[in-house]
Amino acid sequence: MSAPDSKKARWFVEEVQPHEDSLRSYLHHAFPAVRDVDDVVQESYLRIWRAAHPIQAARAFLFKVARHLAIDLVRRKRISPIEDVTDIGALSVTDNKPNAADAACTSHDTRMLVEAIDALPARCREIVILRKLKGISQKEIAAMLGISEQTVQVQAARGLKRCEEFLRKRGMRETYGDETIS
Predict the structure, then answer these.
(1) Which of 27, 123, 135, 157 has the fewest Cβ atoms within 10 angstroms?
(2) Distance (Å, rounded) from C-alpha 132 to C-alpha 164?
(3) Could you tell me the pTM of the whole model?
(4) pLDDT over threshold 50, residue 175
């Protein structure tokens, strides 16, 4: 191994690998649909190893790479879900789906919400997804991301406000308690 390679290997062992347990925990909690967390971790390691130089914020970069890989896996699974069926008799043959009009409205609303969330800054988007969609506590999110609970609270509130503004600008009306957003 050449001198630059041994230096890179030492950096990797000291700066990247120590975060493996917290990365696995984060992936299990944030992306329960990802079945093989080991693959995400290994692919993240490979991508960091291939980086041109050691990264200054190795932990943050590792989590960001892993998050993007997990999101890609979840998206692929949504596009072409494949489920094993061991007992054909256990399959439901009744259609409990909403009618076409309800499905179209729900689909449109969901797309608009996804667009609103996608429009958020990266950290804010991550916190909104973890807190509001996955129901993870502020304390757990703060620990996962290495930030204060106050930051989680502020970012979640900002994210919700930005989503509300995004939806309002696109003509969406929603009722929250006695207050109607128009």
Answers:
(1) 135
(2) 14
(3) 0.43
(4) no
